[in-house]
Amino acid sequence: MVSIRDPVQLGKMFSINYVFTFWKALVILIPPLLLALLPILMPSSEIRCAYVIAVMAVYWMTEAIPMSVTALIPIFAFPLLGVMSTQETCIVYLNRTNMLFLGGLMVAVAVEHCNLHKRIALLVILHVGQSPRRLMGGFMFTAMFLSMWISNTATCAMMVPIVYAILQEVYRTHQQKSLQDPLKDTLLPSNLNERENENTNACALETGLDIEAMELENKVQDNAETEDLQPPNDECRAIRDMCFISVACASNIGGTGCLTGTGPNLVLNGILQGSFSEPTGLNFATWLLFNVPPMLICTFLSWLWLQALFLGVGKNARGHLNTEEAKSMKRMIRKKFDELGKMSYQEGTVLVLFILLVFLWMFRAPEFMPGWAKIFKDYFGKSVSDATPVMFVVFLLFILPARLPNCLCFRDPNDSSPPTSSPACLTWQAIHEKLPWGVIILLGGGFAMAKAAQTSGLSLWLGELLKTLGSIDKVGIMFIVCIMAACVSNVASNTATASIFLPVIKDLSLGLEINPLYLMLSVTIVCSYAFILPVATPPNAIVFNASGMKTKEMMRAGVVMNIVCLLVIIIFVNTLGVVMFDLNDFPAWTNSTI
User: Which residue ranges does UniProt annotate as crossing the membrane (predicted)?
Assistant: First the structure.
């Protein structure tokens, strides 16, 4: 027990070390107490809702409490403060958007479970080329494509071992070159006539050096088999940092290309479906048509920028391989691909079902033509959302066998073994181990915040308050909100950032009579552009820990990429977005509020 009369002990209690030691406890306790003044001084439903949202925003940005646990706060806070009932709050945690996300995650787990994603990755890398620049392009294209359909965290975690194995081959190549270069200098005297006169001594010297070189190369190979090689020089360190950063960036960018690719996309979809009863024009097909072009452009520009930053351009550019080095690299990649063997029956089944799912999503309600969902609605009078086809495919994954059964017409006539059954393409154990359940709760918390803001009247209050921005051009407003979202998403989860920003952006758009998609679409995409800090996204953290790079390297690369990608999406929203979604006009569906 510390005596209050002992100033030395009291000083230690309130020192910087104590503050840093117990910072989580201070963040958990102090913000709710300070913010509690708002509902006390202004006791209204809107302010009580704002109080809960503000506390959740602090917890999400600081991560003093696990993010999924913070997302559970509305279940007890909104009913106790009279904002929404428990029934109204809980029901949004498993709405159709969250069921869509759950189904998408299960399909992604099936792809991982059968190693189909690894086969796709190695196949692409094998055919793009073997120079560091081409390899980085292969890494980025593969990570971008896979993260459109499966979690960017899972994509990055799968790519890191592949990148690491290829980098080990790059290190061995550079070590062998460093052994050979000094030998060449020794074996090539400037005076050629002197070498001809001393042919016998030169031959003896050459033989001895060749033996020494072989011994050193054998040592390098022996060390490579027993322990991990480290970058032998600055060029290899630059290639290492470039390749790992490229994987994280492509994983983050790729998630923007598909509606189910990342959390912010689903937050936007959930808010639109929960706010407006009429179609907004944004669905799976239109999302792909609009977002794939900027996704490809951002990935390409990132590829160019990382080359220029780490390898240089022009005559002083680094990272070139000769023919023999390229062949050696290709042999190594081919060996890893061959180790996977032929495509299994399970991989083929998962691939076919995955293509079927994309087809069902694309043509459910494509807007430009009647979709298959219209047939069911006309016949039964009930609408069908994207969650229906994904859960149908998940059901098939759980019942279709992972291999052909050893019975009936599938049985080999020469096989005398007893018939055996086959496990399904997807098992519940795989779901239990690999599915990120916390993300589903996190999305539910964001939907609860949006619903409470609308029910309590906070939306209308914010809309009136934000009308003061009406004097600014809408392009200027877009720049402001996008920069704010980009800054926050680099220090907080992109899903949490979208959950905080998008309800406010929706109310701002309605208050200023701007098409809500104009601002909401750009902010949603920008939330995924978090390239600067290792803590910004899980892919950033994965590659930072795996590579051993310095934080300043990621920051130096990420700042420019953030700016470039932000400008790209703003340009696309004001060009292609205007054409596709008629963003210059205030749409009629904004009057169909739920």
Answer: 20-42, 49-77, 139-167, 284-306, 345-363, 384-404, 475-505, 517-536, 557-581
